Amino acid sequence: MMCQLCSREASVHLSETVDGTRRELHLCGPCARKAGLTPPDPPPNAALEAVVDHLIVQHVGELVGELARASCPLCGLKFMDFRTGGRLGCPNDYEAFSQGLSPLLRTAHGATRHVGKAPRKRTPPGRSPRLRLRARLREAIAREDYELAATLRDQLRQEDADR
């Protein structure tokens, strides 16, 4: 559409119906300003993640904004990845995301304390060599160090085969 006043490309489009007659007006930005109309603001030039974080904090609260940026120090899983995927990465995630998980567990199970069976052999979350290997693998991939990543992947596969 072209501006009806100056023949530039129109960015403001108005239409009204009066007594069954439809009237349309197409103006460019400068002509719309002269007529007392304001054209729409262009969208902000920001990264999508920053916009989403801002919207979360604005509409839900600061705690959720902190949780959105939180990640597990052992496995590297981000809380928002858990929310979208529905799976935790390691046992340490229960502690790392306790502020966000406690309400979910209370709603789903009616309690936040585990009273069922536990595995016989327990390795503290920070001492598990497999979790450390997985964390190192994620870091190597993030740094694009694919040779180290392949070595770590092979070590993880070897551990699986030994089990």
What topology, given as strand order, has the largest sheet?
A: 1-2
Structural class by SSE content: mainly alpha
- The outline comes out as elongated
Biggest sheet, in brief? 2 strands, antiparallel
Task: Give average pLDDT, whole number.
Answer: 79
Helix share of residues? 40-55%
Q: End-to-end distance, in Å?
A: 69 Å
From N to C, what is the helix and strand string? Answer: EEHHHHHHHH
Pfam families: UVR
Organism: Tautonia sociabilis
Protein name: UVR domain-containing protein
Domain UVR: 132-157
Note the topology.
Elements: E1 12-18, E2 21-27, H1 29-34, H2 48-59, H3 62-69, H4 79-85, H5 93-96, H6 98-109, H7 129-142, H8 146-162
Antiparallel strand pairs: 1-2
